[in-house]
Amino acid sequence: MAEKYIISVDQSTQGTKALLFDESGSLLKRTDKAHRQIINEKGWVSHDSAEIYRNTVEVVKCLVEESGIDKEKVVGIGISNQRETSLAWDKVTGEPLGHAIVWQCARAVDICERVEQKGEAENIRRKTGINLSPYFPASKIAWILENVEGAKEKAEKKEICHGTVDSWLIFKLTGGKSYKTDYSNASRTQLFNIFDLKWDEEICGLFGIDPENLAEVVDSDSDFGETDVEGLFPKPIPIHGVLGDSHGSLFGQGCLKSGMIKSTYGTGSSIMMNIGEKPVLSTHGVVTSLAWSMGGKVSYVLEGNLSYTGATITWLKDDLKIIESPAETEKLARQAAANDSLYLVPAFSGLGAPYWDSCAAAAIVGMTRTTGKAEVVRAGVECIAYQITDIIKAMSEDADGYNIYAAKCGDKMKHVKTVKGNAKSSYTISGIGKNKIDKKANYKVQVRAYRTVNGKKKLLAKSMTYHIAGEAQKSYTNAKALKIAKKKIALKKGASKKITVKIIKQNSRKKLLSKKHVALCRYYSSDKSIASVSGNGVVKGRKKGTCTIYAVAANGVKKGVKVTVR
Q1: Which of 76, 85, 302, 424 is the most exposed place for a label (fewest CB within 10 A)?
Q2: Among 241, 267, 256, residue whose Cα is nearest residue 185
Q3: Would you state the pLDDT for residue 213?
Q4: Helix or strand or coil: residue 151?
Q5: CA 296 to chain centre
Q6: Is the peptide bond before 354 cis (omega within 30 degrees of 0)?
Q7: CA-to-CA distance for 155 and 397, rounded, in angstroms?
């Protein structure tokens, strides 16, 4: 065996694992211990915080003792953890204040509704990257402060700690000497400003939370303190690396470059895409978080979370009792009638990404007289794939975007703006490169649609080049150009035949549109030989040949342009 070892603790929703690695990164041994899933009659899901800590200590002790390694050769511990599960404890005694509220639990929905009624939901999303939801710790911690006896009073005296499981384990393992969290976990609390990289005082105030009672946020590869794991080791060893479990998975799967994506399957699922060093706010229902911060350098992700994937199979086994083990699902799914139309919507605690409906209820729909156990099991398995597909589609929309190019007429086009996702708004040219807009000049603008593939932008389509008169440049709308670009992207099988248009008089349109007050133009053909024309050169036509297209400018001037339809 190698002479030095690393211990990894993975504290997850269902239990705690300890893993032993040698210097080469080879896994030598693993120990596990499950903890209770505490679910009451209201469907609230809780964990016993003290049990989680006891289990963490126990699995590490079993790992070391059963492997027979020299304890003095263990040089460090790393921690990954279930992320949004929230808890509070006494800062002086280290004793938990009530149970931990599990990420699946939606008991704090009323608090979210209260904040939403103040009109703050969009402000929260723009600062934290996260949609307002009881899924995240902000409302869960607020619920603890409002409902757990003594919590509010201790918070006012600054005698409370509250946060996520990583900060709880670090605090306990270090004997209360270290109260820290890393950037990945902090970014999932809905209290952390992912742009300013600090706890947001305004948002904390909305939930009645004092930022001084939150953990110190440090790099994911920091030294989080030292522990002897309740006397197991002869001398303290450093906790040197902490990540939320899904972020650890992204790193472990090698998704280190922008555009790389992973999907993990456990109690729930996390679909996460590395988007690099600059945050992008989703417009399609997924959230933006920090992947990690290492060496003082942060990376961002887009993520969609599902509460019930593996947990749906657990529901089939433990609650419906129609299977005895998860292994039975494949055989039963294959036995199900091929034409059965049964669907399962596993909204047992509402719907998260990309729908964000905390009030949604689970449903089984499409039952027929032939629906039986096999069909129900298959619907349970298929709902996992359907949910993942919804997230992937949403991410692909956010990964797409539009580059805006502009220049003075006669100059080479330059990139002036990138618009991510499904851009529909208006944009203003604030400058061409480093130059300010010349109000007396005419400009040309083009929208180019792209899709991010393996971290690289692939050009999909170009819009027509819009010519804008000097006095019209202050605010112009790209909606038509975007529509054209997206239409070309979305052409489906069976659509009208694409016909290429060649403009014979190349300067006619430019000459026409350089007139004062002219912004955009529309086209039609007098003999209806061309059904429609888009400025990017793709049209729907009825016949080949040469015809005249009439351009109608914004000032009402008409001019014919001869084109050849091939």
Answers
A1: 424
A2: 241
A3: 97
A4: helix
A5: 22
A6: yes
A7: 42
CB-CB contact of 457 with 437 (8 Å): no
Residues in CB range of 163: below 8 A, 6 or more apart: 86, 87, 137, 141, 181, 185, 189, 214, 215
DSSP E strand boundaries for 214-373: 216-218, 226-227, 237-244, 261-265, 269-276, 287-294, 297-306, 343-345, 363-365
The region of weakest confidence among 241-250, 366-375, 399-408, 462-471 is 462-471
Give CA angle at 363 (360, 369), nearest 5°. 160
Residue pair 41/294 in contact (Cβ under 8 Å)? The answer is no
Give CA separation, 185 vs 6, 85, 86, 290, 294, in Å. 22, 10, 11, 8, 14
Model confidence at 105: pLDDT above 70: yes
Residue with tokens 């007139």: 515
The amino acid that residue 288 corresponds to is T
What CA–CA distance (Å, rounded) separates 414 from 436? Answer: 13
Cα(57)–Cα(449) distance, rounded to whole angstroms?
Answer: 53
If phi > 0 it is left, if psi is from -120 to 50 it is alpha, else beta; for residue 356 that is left
Q: Give the separation between CA 244 and CA 284, rounded to whole angstroms.
A: 23
- Distance, in Å, from the CA atom of 29 to the CA atom of 489, rounded to the nearest integer, reads 50
pLDDT, average across residues 167-196 = 97
Percentage of residues in the chain with pLDDT exceeding 90?
Answer: 57
Residues in contact with 397: Cβ distance below 8 Å, sequence separation at least 6, in sequence order: 283, 284, 421, 422
CA dihedral (510, 513, 514, 517) in degrees, to 10, reads -170
CB 231 within 8 Å of CB 316: no
Q: Rounded to 5 degrees, what are φ and ψ at 540? A: -105, 125
Where is average pLDDT lowest: 201-205, 351-355, 494-498? 494-498
Where do the H-state alpha helices sit in 129-238?
A: 137-147, 151-156, 165-173, 183-186, 201-206
Mean pLDDT of 312-330: 93
CA distance 432 to 153: 57
Query: Nearest CA to 165 among 181, 176, 149?
Result: 181
Nearest to 74 by CA among 259, 307, 308, 234: 234
DSSP line for 361-409? --EEE---TT--HHHHHHHHHHHHHHHHHHHHHHHHHHH-EEEEEEEET
Per-residue model confidence (pLDDT) at position 260: 86
Q: 291: Cβ–Cβ under 8 A, 6 or more apart, which residues?
A: 184, 247, 250, 251, 272, 274, 298, 299, 300, 301
Closest by CA position to 559, among listed 517, 514, 500 = 514
Residue 95 has pLDDT above 90, yes or no: yes
Place of tokens 């911690």: 141
Which is nearest to 15 in space by CA: 32, 40, 38, 39? 32
Record the tokens describing residue 521, joined without a space.
């133009």
What's the whole-model pTM score? 0.69
> Other CB atoms closer than 10 Å to residue 19's CB: what's the count?
18
